TrEMBL record:
PANTHER family: ATP-DEPENDENT RNA HELICASE, ATP-DEPENDENT RNA HELICASE DHX33. Its EC number is 3.6.4.13. GO terms for molecular function: ATP binding; ATP hydrolysis activity; double-stranded RNA binding; RNA helicase activity. InterPro entries: AAA_22, DEAD-box_helicase_OB_fold, HA2_WH, Helicase-assoc_dom, Helicase_ATP-bd, Helicase_C-like, P-loop_NTPase. This is RNA helicase. The gene is 100638108.
Amino acid sequence: MASSMEAQRKSLPIYSARDRLIREIKTNPCCIVVGETGSGKTTQIPQYLHETGLSKKGLIGITQPRRVAAISIATRVAKEQSVSLGAEVGYAVRFEDCTGPSTKIKYQTDGLLLREAIQDPLLSRYLVVILDEAHERTVHTDVLFGVIKGAQKERRERHIKLLRIVIMSATLDTSSYSNYFNNAKVLYIQGRQYHVNVYYTLKPQSDYIHSAITTVLQLHGEEESGENGDILVFLTGQDEIESMLHTLIQCKSLFPSHWKDMMVLPLFSALPSAQQQKVFQKPPPNTRKVILSTNIAETSLTLSGVKYVIDTGMVKGRGYNPLMGLDLLLVQPISKAQARQRLGRAGRESEGYCYRLYTEESFLQLEENTVPEIQRCNLSSVLLQLLAMGIKDILSFEFMDQPPEESLIAALEELVLLKAVNKEEETLELTPLGKRMSSFPLSPSLSSCLLASVDYDCVVELVTLVSLLSVDTVLYTPTDGREKADLARMKFFCPEGDHLMLMKIHKAYQTSNEKKSWCHDNYIHARNMSTVQDIRKQLKEICRQNSLQLTSNNDGERLRKTLLCGFFRNVAEHVRDGKYLTVLSRQEVFIHPSSCLFSVTPPPPFVMYTELVHTTKCYMRMVSVIDPKWLFEIAPNYFHKTMTTNMIQD
Ligand code: CDP
Ligand code: MG
């Protein structure tokens, strides 16, 4: 086993560059490594540095934009090193730390390293920091560019051991990184890439999921049953993946029994790791894998055996409207660079085929590169973290690409409203409350209501509620059993809304004896529910570190008021026929079909929401009924100043 692992490592394209890479990283304070996905950057470079002895002087840290990638790659590397995960090779993601005193190679999310920098801005435990998947330009990676550059400079000035920086990217446009890191050396890894044939649709497709299903079935049906080649489909999220999965499984019976079997596998961030591992395993004989994935398979994870790529041309990304203060998750077109990455997934082992479910003309109209997330997201979390690191002069912080000024101002306003920051003329001062807020791995809104619970004497309940809001969902709704699920969960219905319903579910969960079967019977997501318990534990621990008393009170009105302390800007007023307008920005929003208030008649006149998603319309996803009078109690300055609607006349 060990020797086959060894042989596999040596067969990677990066292996021939091993000595050069070690030499260059040892002699240059900053290097940029560029190489095709699958060449071995993420798994091998940290091991090379470790094997050459660099890790004796400090940790080798590698960031990943996604938690699944961090976990799955650490698992793989621990195996290659023949050590148990959490020993020499470990990982850390939000709410989960799998490292130990002997850890030398640490995979982690970029968000987590940024958090670590709050405690230790010089990152003094690290000898090498590798920012991986830099081309994705997540907001955390972008901020880390500035943080590690600053840490390297400061360590040099203070004669502390040099911080070595490695930036890794799968795309070639490296000039901006090189310029930013003082003309850093760029190292190219020769990859293996076979020719990929590209096909476009002749007409624009109105329903890309439908087209994707048809394409999979055609490919599977047309081909000689003996031929190999897995199919990789790029979709935008869990919902889409699950619904397509369901349809394909139903269609399997269409094929005669002598036909090759189809093994349909989902791949997305929230998937349990045991299920994730299936996509890496060889399928049974005479079986073709059809992998339905989010853009996680674009560059972060390499799947072997893929010969066909079906590209819907869409991705789910963060969006933000600073003028309206609206945070959004939106399904949007990918960039040309992303389309090329997706295509490349088909040509890793032999000639491949890529089916783009859009026209060539649409392809030509795509943006050249993905717009860095920092230019299109809410910056309040990041701003709070930078302030907590002691970086006060935000406007002169050296970003690789400057975020829009209005986003920075909106973020600042949010922090001022949440009383995290004092704005005295030109200087920004973090308040003691703000400092406390920054110690929670939560958005400023969530940590703000958690801290408000101290005044409302319901810390325990808010810890639970915030934990419940920190997982994707605790409701498990199979595509073919929506009605059954709704029926089973009817007993949890709360006329006050989703937040109290979640609390009710949690309480029932806690008192149940057989958690797993209870979850199954009630259509509750067992794994997410157990994650909620882990998060609660951690948040309680942080409360203790902040000397917060774990008070308890489960009065429903009190809980909603406490929640409103962090979300008083997320309030909407019913106008007519289920249509709501946000109270301040007058934006049209609707209650999401998954909310327990969705079909309540008459619709509640005022609601607060903790999440907004934009699909066909703007939907509020976690919704509670509120009394508008609470707003004047909770945020008197804000609502006194800005209210102009008829709200006050009620
Ligand atoms: O980072 P880069 O895309 O250059 O490559 P990598 O992630 O280091 O992957 C190198 C090789 O390791 C690929 O051939 C993967 O198939 C393999 N690998 C694996 O088998 N299992 C994993 N969990 C991760 C990588
Ligand atoms: Mg990689």
